[in-house]
Automatic annotation (TrEMBL):
Entries under InterPro entries matching the protein: ADH-like_N (IPR013154), ER (IPR020843), GroES-like_sf (IPR011032), NAD(P)-bd_dom_sf (IPR036291), Quin_OxRdtase/zeta-crystal_CS (IPR002364), YIM1/Zinc_Alcohol_DH_Fams (IPR050700)
Enoyl reductase (ER) domain location: 12-301
UniProt entry tagged with the keyword Oxidoreductase: yes
GO molecular function: quinone reductase (NADPH) activity; zinc ion binding
Domain of life of the native organism: Bacteria
EC number(s) on file: 1.6.5.5
Enzyme class: oxidoreductase
Pfam families: ADH_N, ADH_zinc_N_2
Key words of the record: Oxidoreductase
Coiled-coil features, chain-numbered ranges: none
Annotated protein name in UniProt: Alcohol dehydrogenase, zinc-binding protein
């Protein structure tokens, strides 16, 4: 099968290439998915799990990418949740070969059924972005109606979903980004938009929740905006300081098949619209990793046509 692989840690994204790999071995409670569309995170070549198995043993050449949507083509021993031919989407395991391949072996607990009328491209934009937004806003920050949330990167893959979920629950949403993101962020539902280049972040005032995907100086300045009892949640890096009367925490997204199914239902009914940016073929995935120009939304790799 064709797959994007990487073997040299020092080479970084320049070490990515399209190669031939053996068809994946299916284990107990696995399925093999014929991948139709896949997503990736540009920083994942820095993750330890990209290079080693859970035991610490080297697993190169490894296949990056951890978001996928496709069709089940093989069942592992003991698998009962899915059937051959069923459409599914979800997260490829962190410490195993990922989704930038024609086929991927995935634990069933990391997958959810995909409704027949939800496109694979949209589905592949959901797993990390959708689960990160939900878990950050509602499980970690416990956002509720009437509160104010500041969402950094409001037009990006994660931020755009966070904006929509926060609006749906009845929160007041302040979004940030660059000037080119303003119209999209307002269209998604932000009440106020701050341009990080030209506007003062402090103009946001005190907020109940900060949802951060940027880190660095922006995150640290945002900590001062958290009002008493409030929370800053970040996917970028552990905060160096804490709000005076609140909390700041770093979290990693966790697989959740039930929540994935809920997110897919929201997409199906139009309550949630993932923002897809570029769609590239599998052969162009290495260059998409190295893309310098900012794009709005999530870059998706189209692996197999429907």
């Amino acid at each position: 099968m064709k797959a994007v692989t990487v073997s040299d840690r020092d080479a970084g994204v320049s070490g990515l290439s399209l190669t031939e790999l053996p068809y994946p071995v299916v284990s107990e409670n696995d399925v093999v998915v014929r991948v139709h569309a896949a997503g990736f995170t540009r920083g994942e070549l820095d993750w330890p799990d990209t290079w080693t198995e859970r035991s610490g043993r080297d697993r190169t050449p490894s296949v990056p990418g951890h978001e996928l949507s496709g069709v089940v083509v093989e069942l592992g021993y003991g698998t009962t949740r899915f059937t051959i031919g069923q459409r599914v989407f979800g997260l490829a395991d962190w410490a195993r070969n990922g989704s930038l391949a024609e086929y991927a072996a995935v634990e069933t607990r990391h997958l959810a059924p995909l409704p027949y009328d939800v496109d694979h491209t949209l589905a592949a934009a959901l797993p990390i972005s959708g689960l990160s937004a939900w878990q950050g806003l509602f499980e970690h920050a416990q956002l509720v109606a009437g509160q104010t949330v500041l969402i950094h990167g409001a037009a990006g893959g994660v931020g755009s979903i966070a904006v929509q979920l926060a609006r749906e629950v009845g929160a007041r949403v302040i979004g940030t980004g660059r000037a080119a993101d303003r119209d999209r962020a307002l269209e998604l539902g932000t009440h106020t938009f701050l341009d990080l280049d030209d506007d003062k972040l402090e103009d946001a005032g005190e907020v109940d929740v900060v949802f951060d995907v940027i880190g660095g100086e922006i995150m640290e300045r945002s900590i001062a905006l958290v009002r008493a009892g409030g929370t800053l949640v970040t996917l970028a890096e552990p905060p160096k300081t804490q709000p005076r009367d609140g909390r700041a925490l770093y979290f990693l997204v966790e697989p959740d098949s039930a929540r994935l199914a809920d997110l897919a239902a929201r997409v199906r009914t139009g309550r949630l619209k993932p923002v897809v940016g570029r769609v590239v073929p599998l052969a162009d995935a290495p260059s998409a990793f190295n893309q310098k120009k900012r794009t709005t939304g999530k870059t998706i790799v189209r692996v197999t046509e429907d």
